[in-house]
TrEMBL record:
Protein name (Swiss-Prot/TrEMBL): DUF4282 domain-containing protein
Keyword vocabulary terms for this entry: Membrane, Transmembrane, Transmembrane helix
Species annotation: Dyella japonica
Superkingdom of origin organism: Bacteria
Transmembrane segments: 30-52, 58-77
Length: 94
């Protein structure tokens, strides 16, 4: 924990008015953003495939983007949508 605090406080004057912003930016610099981006892309792609398979593509994409793998489970547990009834054809004009 001391090591993380040292990294967060690196180059920060605790008495400065913008100390919070410097600490926040130091902590955000420690986050592996590239890995998080690619994991999110993977979650959305798998969610789209599962949604397509269940007949709910957009729902699969949205749930995977918001909830990650938990969204996959929700898509898989929801029932397939019922097919829409096709109305009978109109009579031909004379």
């Amino acid at each position: 924990m001391e090591e993380l605090l040292d990294k967060a406080m690196q180059g920060v004057d605790p008495d400065a008015p913008d100390a919070f912003m410097h600490i926040f930016l130091n902590l955000m610099g420690l986050v592996p953003w590239v890995a998080l981006f690619w994991w999110s892309v993977l979650f959305v792609v798998v969610g789209a495939l599962l949604g397509w398979w269940r007949g709910r593509t957009v729902e699969g994409i949205v749930l995977a983007a918001v909830l990650g793998p938990i969204g996959w489970i929700i898509v898989l547990l929801r029932p397939r949508p019922k097919p829409r009834a096709v109305p009978p054809p109109l009579p031909r004009r004379r």
